[in-house]
Amino acid sequence: MRVIVNGIVDFRSDARELMRIMTTGNEPKLEDQLRAVQRRKHYSLKTEETYVGWYRRYVLWHGKRHPREMGEAEVEAFPTGLAVEGKVGAKTQNQALNAVLSLGDGLG
């Protein structure tokens, strides 16, 4: 994608990400950081979207607490809760757990 900022052409940046950085000047949101980690690992876009979905469910399941405030107990409780309340299978639990664990891969 071609993005022009202050007369400079940037072919590498995603327009939405570039505008967010320019307007906020803050550290990227945790979800954006998670996406960046997935891209560094060369995960497919489908996997990225799936992991972001699990991240959102994880945060909502824990009452919108920030993942930095949670520890091992909350990580373990999430797939267990999925099994008990959501009646999901082992593969789905493992996928959700892997997504939550990826939050710690390179995130601040």
Mind explaining what this structure looks like?
- The structure is a single chain.
- α3 packs across α5 (90-101) and α4 (72-85) packs antiparallel against α5.
- This protein is mainly alpha-helical and 108 residues long.
- The protein is built from five helices and two strands, in the order ββααααα.
- Helices cover 59% and strands 6% of the residues.
- The model is unreliable at 1-5 and 9-14 (pLDDT under 50).
- The longest helix is centred in the middle third of the chain and has 17 residues, at 45-61.
- The protein has helices at 15-24, 30-40, 45-61, 72-85, 90-101, and strands at residues 3-5, 8-10.
- Strands 1-2 form a two-stranded antiparallel ribbon.
Q: How many beta-strand runs?
A: 2
- Ends: how far apart? 28 Å
Please, how many helices?
5
Sketch the major β-sheet. Answer: 2 strands, antiparallel
- Structural shape: globular
Structural class: mainly alpha
Question: What's the gyration radius in Å?
Answer: 16 Å
Q: Pick out the low-confidence regions.
A: 1-5, 9-14
Order of helices and strands: EEHHHHH
Strand order of the largest sheet: 1-2
The percent range for helix content is 55-70%
**Mean pLDDT figure:** 79
Kindly estimate the percentage of residues that lie in beta strands according to DSSP: 5-15%
How would you summarize this macromolecular structure in one to three sentences?
The protein has about 110 residues and is mostly helical. Helices cover about 60% and strands about 5% of the residues.
Describe this protein with a few key phrases.
single chain; 108 residues; mainly alpha; two-stranded antiparallel sheet; 5 helices; globular; disordered N terminus
